[in-house]
Each structure stands twice: as structure tokens, then as C-alpha cells.
């Protein structure tokens, strides 16, 4: 894992992308002997990754690989696999290797880079990258290969990654008129990465979010919704989610529903078995979502705008 793969090569366009320069600049550096390269049988340049990184250091160019010495080839190979095939497997395997070595902050830097990757939509980043990592971490804990404290460290670093993705907002000419959502986890649920991801998702697509965090009494969701006249309430239930928890959330919020302040109810978590939503006359819509991608798709098709019950 520590050995640098000096045989890894890049095309001219890949080199230009990595160094954030124009391809003509890479061509000039090659022609001037500033950037060593090999030539394929077809006459195409192939530039060794170590030469590219040396050129970056000499020119004080920060690249996506800069924070990961001596793992640059591993990160580059994993990123190229994501870009070419869409697979997150190599990146998750690399991350788990760092987790095992206690290099948790480095994992956060990698996920910062992943979050900025154009080929990876935000919902997939949350559901498959962060979700995939936490699934592997949870499995390692269940098998006795990881301490609870280590699991908490990974969760905290992923929470920090998500918080760095909250969009900056400016308030010119008064407070903007944005739809309001209330987001949090119900009492007994200390796992709030999913709820935090929903908060970031909603803010990125134009909502104003009241984020309540973990372990919140259900009644408090109703109180904050009325106070802020929120159009959407998102409640994360404990994993693995039981439909009894879903039924209780719906019942308590149904009893406190104020028709003069209507809202849609979204329930989320890792579910086992069916996802049948209890009958209710309240809410403009109510649904169970198993992922950020499913919630985003529901919102895009008007989930929070009109009457509907779905599972």
C-alpha cells in the first residue's frame, strides 16, 4: 500500500485536467523537455504520474492528489475507475484501509475530493459513497474488527464532510422567500448522518432547513413545523427501521396536525420488510424514503406540493 507505482501513466488530456492547465501547456512542457513522457506505438504521449506530480510541486500547483502522499497512484486509479465505470468499490476499499490504519482525517480529505467530483451526483455521493462506507464500518464493528470509538470517529469525519457542503447564502434585499423544511431524527435515534445528508440536500436545492439533529421527541417536530410554517417535515427513524416506529411518528404528528399550516411528511431510514404507510387524513403527502436519491426524485415530481400517500 505504501509503494509508489512509478509505472502509472496519464494521457496529455488527463495531465492537463489534473494540473488544471490547458492541453497546449502540457504539450509545450513536453516539447521543451520539462515534462518527461513516453510515446505509444500510435504516437500518443503517455506521462508518468510521478513526473506529473513533480511538475505540480515545482510549480506550486495544488491537485486533487496533493493531500494523499504516498497514496497518489491509488487515489488516481480509484478516481479513474469511478469516472470510467461508475464504480465506487476501489475508493471504498482504499478508505477502509486508511480507517484500519487510523488515518481517519485522510478519509475526510478523500471524501471532500469525491464530493467535488463532477461524475458523482450529490445524492449518489451520499447514498453510495458515505452510505457504502458506513455500511462497511458497521459490518467491521459487528465482526469485532473495529471499536465503537473508531466507528464514531468515522461518523464525525463524514458529518464534517457534509457540513462543508452546505451552500453559502447571501441575503440581499431582505430574507429570501424559500420553502421551509424541518429535519431531524426521532427520539432513540442517535444516528443522524442520514438526516444531516437530507438537510444538505434540501439546502442545495433551495430549501431553508431547520435542522433539529438527533434524538428529538416527535411532538417537537410538530411544534417547530407550526412555528416556522414549514412545508416539509423529514423524520429519520432508528436503524433498522421498524414499521412500528413509522406508525408512531405518523400517529403523533397526525394528532397534532394543523390544517391551516399544511405540510408533507417524509420518513427515512434503513428499512426491513415492507414500507406501508399508515392511513391518515393529515398531511399534503406522506411517504417512506430509503435514500436521499429517492427523496430528491420525490421532490422533483411534486411530493411536497400536493396530496399523496406513497411507500
Please explain how this structure is put together:
It is elongated and about 75 Å long. Helix 11 links the parallel strand 6 and strand 7. It has a six-stranded parallel beta sheet, sandwiched between helices. The chain has a three-stranded antiparallel beta sheet with strand order 1-3-2. Helix 4 packs antiparallel against helix 5. The C terminus is likely disordered. The chain is α/β, with parallel strands linked by helices and 311 residues long. 34% of the residues are buried.
Brief digest:
With 311 residues, the chain is of the alpha/beta class. Helices cover 47% and strands 13% of the residues. The protein has helices spanning 12-19, 23-31, 49-58, 72-85, 89-100, 104-115, 122-142, 148-163, 193-204, 218-228, 243-255, 292-300, and strands at 9-10, 38-39, 45-48, 180-186, 208-216, 232-236, 264-268, 285-289, 308-309.
State the main characteristics.
311 residues, alpha/beta, 6-stranded parallel β-sheet, 12 helices, 9 strands, elongated, disordered C terminus
